[in-house]
Amino acid sequence: MANRLHQRRRRRYRAIAAGTAALAAAATIGAVAWNAGAEEPEASSRQAAYAAAAAEYGVPEEVLLGVSYMQSRWTDHGGAPSTAGGFGPMHLTDEVETLAGAGHHHDSDARGDDTRPMDLPEQEEELVASSGPVTIDDAATLTGESESELRTDPGANIAGGAALLADYQADLGVDSDDPADWYGAVARYANAGDSTTAARFADEVYSVITAGAVEDTDGGRVELEATAVDADESQLALLSLAAPAGTDQTVCPEHLGCEWIPAPYEKTGSLPSQYGNHDLANREEDIDINAIVIHDTEGSYKGTLDVVQDPKRISWNYTIRSSDGHIAEHLDHENVGWQAGNWAVNMRSLGIEHEGFAASGAWYTEILYRNSAELVGYLADRYDVPIDREHILGHDNVPQSNHWDPGPYWDWGHYFQLLGVPLEHAAGGITGGAVTIAPDFDDNRPVMTGCDKSNDAAECPVRGASTVFLYSEPRSDAPLLNDASDSVDDLGARAGYGQRFAVAEVQGDWVAVWYQGKKGWIQNHEDSPVLAPARAQVAIPNRDDVPVYRDTFPEASAYEGTGATYRPNPVVTTIDADQSYVVGQELQSQALWAKTFEGPNFVVNGETVFYQIQIGHRIGYVDAADVTFAFV
Fold first, then answer.
1. What would the pLDDT profile of 340-379 be if each residue is shown by its tens digit?
2. Dist. CA 460–CA 542, nearest whole Å
3. Residue 87 pairs with which residues in a beta bridge?
4. What whole-number distance in Å separates Cα of residue 355 and Cα of residue 82?
5. Of 298, 423, 426, 517, most Cβ neighbours within 10 A?
6. Which of 31, 117, 35 is nearest to 75 (CA)?
7. Residue 302 shares a structural domain with residue 322
């Protein structure tokens, strides 16, 4: 194999353009629906492709299915590349062009402190070739298929993955048809750079084999029957992989092998305020961490690490690589990263970046979702953060942030299943009270525009999404609420999976919820519902024109004698006495004062109590004195 590797023919593709075109061609392909109460359908062509490839290359079928599930959940994604440049159900990787990591996502004031705005250096968006390992050329050599066929033909792609697994098994010198004896080949398939990440991938593959799985994919229904396997984990040593670096400095489950790549705290100029790229604090003692913010990188893993290691730029807590789920940690949790674009949220949250894009055709691997969920569950348990959409936020839910990642194509429903807390909803029809936004990701395919920045008016590829639109009237040809557009980055009339809203009115299959001080109408077809009844605590304004704030800073009197300057809470909108909004959490007013490199940094605590509410797609805050409460 080594002789083949240096002869690779590496072709480059622009991920955004290639993904958009491929998904557009596949827009008419729908997920295969299967009613558990109906007669079980015959094996699909996708299922047959796995059986044929396993037989041809001598790979246990359950091993082939398990590896493919951990990459793509058996889905072809219309031939579009993943965020790691992987194609097809087996995630055969090729070099693709992607943003280096310093594009628009990392080119704005993520500190979010109006009293000390950031002065970021200008940086051009640069396209670079992905730096991960390439497997598609080896698959082409082993199967005789062209690289084009391996990218676009699911059957050929599955055969290519089977051929790679068989080749890895032969290289390891293991001759067995027992699935337990394929652990080393499975671990190698991840192409991980360290032993722990490789083992984690293999362990998750074998957990799927043991538990079994079934998916209705874009190529038909695929099923993996549960099979008890006692995998030979000792084979990992045959790969001669090093351990990840700096794991003793990370806050991370040991089996994830998080690597320590620190964000620098350094002076960047002669002025005391010229420093980066985070602030020192003592959050273990002074501030409660009460939220975890999910981001996507809008660039490559390597380029994103370049950003977080630059003292003139910004920082966050973790970065997760798409190809193998590898995790890097960057900040001591006591300190405050510049990540969410809102100082009050930054103070109280941890931020996790996921290698990927909010709008392009690129998709996230299953191992990325799983490792992220494992990390978030661990952090939520450590800091007593409830696992719900009021506390596990997208960057697009942060008040007054100008970002909208991870975007509508992040599968929140699947993510919460992996977290072990599937969002449960009360039974029955919707007549009032509250609702949870709960579309089926695969079946919910709203038409959006703006994914192709060279043509903002062009429709995005039709694909599964976590978001629904709100209309100004209960009809599908009515304007969107707030004169919003259907652009993928316009959050003016969107609600996301798991968010809860108070019901304002019901007309047939249309449900109005209170949204930014107005009634926003959501169509909720009986045969394809996107809403579910929910129980919730709601805040009801005591009067008209109650302010909704961006931040949760203390009242003016709390600053007296501290040396800090009073900072008012900006008002983002107002709400009236006939409205109600679901309450997420109670927050005591606080402000971290951090302005200069050498400090002093300290926390100002106030008497004012705020309540986080779901005001729109983003959250907001109301003064507890301005509202009363009810359970609906």
1. 999 999 999 999 999 999 987 789 999 999 999 999 999 9
2. 43
3. 92
4. 10
5. 298
6. 31
7. yes
Indicate if 485 and 544 belong to the same structural domain: no
User: Are 26 and 48 in a shared domain?
Assistant: yes
Distance CA 447, CA 449 (A): 7
Are 548 and 575 in contact by the 8 Å Cβ rule? The answer is yes
Q: What are the start-end ranges of the E strands in 550-601?
A: 571-575, 581-593
Three-state secondary-structure class, residue 328: strand
pTM for the structure as a whole? 0.92
Q: Is residue 417 part of a domain?
A: yes
Q: What is the dihedral of CA 529, 530, 532, 537, to 10 degrees?
A: -160
Q: Shortest CA distance to 271 belongs to which of 563, 595, 565? A: 595
- Residue 337 tokens, joined: 């990263």
Does residue 300 sit in helix, strand or coil?
A: coil
Count CB neighbours of 538 within 10 A.
24
Domain total of the chain: 4
Decide: 117 and 342 in contact? Cβ < 8 Å.
no
Same structural domain, 91 and 165: yes
Using DSSP, state whether 239 is helix, strand or coil: helix
Neighbouring-strand partners of residue 581: 539
Domain that holds residue 524: 425-535
Q: Are residues 556 and 593 in the same domain?
A: yes
Written as one string, the DSSP assignment of 414-437 is HHHHHTT-------S--SSSEEEE
Residues 227 and 192 reside in one and the same domain: yes
**Do 488 and 550 fall into the same domain?**
no
pLDDT in tens, 563-600: 999 999 999 999 999 999 999 999 999 999 999 999 99
Mean residue pLDDT of the chain comes to 90
pLDDT at 625: 98
Per-residue pLDDT reduced to its tens digit, 233-278: 999 999 999 999 999 999 999 999 999 999 999 999 999 999 999 9
How confident is the model over 471-506, as pLDDT tens digits? 999 999 999 999 999 999 999 999 999 999 999 999
Q: Which of 9-18, 76-85, 420-429, 461-470 has the highest mean pLDDT?
A: 461-470
Residues forming beta bridges with residue 531, ordered by sequence position: 437
Task: State the amino acid at position 291 in one-letter form.
Answer: A
